[in-house]
């Protein structure tokens, strides 16, 4: 080959190669990851989500792109964030951090597939027609956090059986607030307890709630499941320690961070499963044909170091039922 012809071939390749790369990149599927929580408090869950994706053959940056949108616990930010992903557009929306994200995604699109992680019944929320046949463009996992509020209250009551009143901290801006409130109040009546309802949707209101607990000498507090509270995990644990009040939470992460007790599901496995679902949808399975999943395993975690700091002795009957003990 003559030198001039060789240069032409190389020059032509240099032009064609970036065009081919751009075409390949354009064909790479895009996942819109919409979360009511924050990247800081869910870093370990995103790792689990990516693991689930890899089990379905997708690796971020290699054959799939992920666009992240975080509401940082502010539910009113989610509709705009969902709309951004729809306009992007993305091939599937994965909504995490509760009902608000899933509802925002569903309102933003009726055609783009949605894989959700929520804590309440998706049929009641009209996200799915049924568990076995969701229909429409959405499916996912109901982690039952809202339904477990009475169970958490019951365990806390066993710890402080002499208490006449226990506080319940709820976020009035959370879609499942009314149901959480009703369930806690009904459970309290059945136990012969009084419930002091504390409402918080801002950092200042959280501070005020714990000040109220201290001022009124309330024996214990249960924190309702809510993405806003998840993003304030360290703050809640620190306030419970400062005011020396036994506190029940909904996820293991709270107990691991120094909270007294938690009762709920294994979030890591849930996020891995939703990653698997997202991968199956990218491979062509319709959400309408993917059943809504529910967990079958729940874990009760006790932090004995925190109990000691509070001057509490955990009764053997409670300790024996714990799935994990942090010492």
Keywords:
13 helices, five-stranded parallel beta sheet, alpha/beta, 327 residues, disordered N terminus, 2 domains, seven-stranded mixed beta sheet, Rossmann fold, 17% strand
Task: Please describe what this structure looks like.
By secondary structure, this protein is an alpha/beta fold. The protein has two domains: 3-144 and 267-289, Response regulator (Rossmann fold, 3-Layer(aba) Sandwich); 146-264 and 299-326, Rossmann fold (3-Layer(aba) Sandwich). The protein has helices spanning 3-27, 43-55, 78-87, 99-108, 149-159, 177-191, 203-215, 227-231, 233-242, 252-256, 267-282, 304-309, 316-319; strands at residues 30-35, 65-70, 92-96, 114-118, 138-142, 165-170, 194-199, 221-223, 247-249, 261-264, 299-303, 324-326. The strands form two sheets. It has a seven-stranded mixed beta sheet. It has a five-stranded parallel beta sheet with strand order 2-1-3-4-5, sandwiched between helices. β6, α6 and β7 form a beta-alpha-beta unit. α5 runs parallel beside α6 (177-191). The chain is elongated, with a radius of gyration of 23 Å.
Layout of SSEs?
Layout: H1 3-27, E1 30-35, H2 43-55, E2 65-70, H3 78-87, E3 92-96, H4 99-108, E4 114-118, E5 138-142, H5 149-159, E6 165-170, H6 177-191, E7 194-199, H7 203-215, E8 221-223, H8 227-231, H9 233-242, E9 247-249, H10 252-256, E10 261-264, H11 267-282, E11 299-303, H12 304-309, H13 316-319, E12 324-326
Parallel strand pairs: 1-2, 1-3, 3-4, 4-5, 6-7, 6-8, 8-9, 9-10, 11-12
Antiparallel strand pairs: 10-11
Helix pairs in contact: 2-11, 3-4, 5-6
């Amino acid at each position: 080959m003559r030198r001039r012809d060789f240069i032409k071939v190389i020059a032509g390749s240099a032009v064609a190669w970036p065009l081919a790369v751009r075409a390949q990149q354009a064909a790479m599927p895009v996942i819109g990851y919409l979360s009511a929580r924050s990247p800081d408090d869910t870093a370990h869950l995103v790792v689990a989500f990516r693991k689930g994706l890899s089990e379905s053959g997708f690796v971020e940056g290699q054959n799939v792109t992920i666009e992240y949108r975080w509401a940082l616990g502010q539910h009113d930010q989610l509709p705009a964030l969902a709309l951004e992903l729809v306009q992007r557009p993305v091939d599937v929306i994965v909504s995490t951090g509760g009902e608000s994200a899933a509802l925002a995604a569903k309102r933003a699109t009726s055609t783009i597939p949605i894989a959700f992680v929520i804590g309440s019944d998706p049929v009641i929320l009209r996200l799915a027609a049924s568990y076995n046949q969701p229909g429409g463009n959405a499916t996912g996992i109901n982690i039952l956090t809202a339904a477990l509020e009475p169970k958490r209250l019951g365990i806390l009551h066993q710890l402080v059986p002499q208490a006449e009143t226990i506080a319940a901290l709820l976020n009035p801006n959370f879609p499942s607030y009314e149901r959480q409130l009703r369930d806690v109040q009904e459970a309290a009546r059945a136990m012969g307890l009084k419930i002091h309802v504390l409402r918080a949707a801002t950092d200042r209101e959280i501070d005020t709630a714990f000040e109220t607990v201290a001022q009124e000498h309330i024996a214990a507090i249960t924190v309702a499941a809510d993405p806003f509270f998840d993003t304030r995990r360290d703050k809640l644990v620190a306030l419970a320690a400062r005011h020396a009040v036994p506190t029940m939470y909904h996820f293991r992460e709270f107990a691991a961070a120094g909270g007294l007790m938690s009762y709920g599901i294994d979030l890591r496995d849930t996020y891995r499963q939703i990653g698997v679902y997202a991968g199956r949808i990218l491979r062509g399975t319709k959400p309408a044909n993917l059943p809504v999943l529910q967990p079958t395993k729940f874990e009760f975690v006790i932090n004995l170091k925190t109990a000691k700091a509070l001057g509490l002795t955990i009764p053997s009957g409670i300790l024996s039922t714990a799935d994990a003990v942090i010492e």
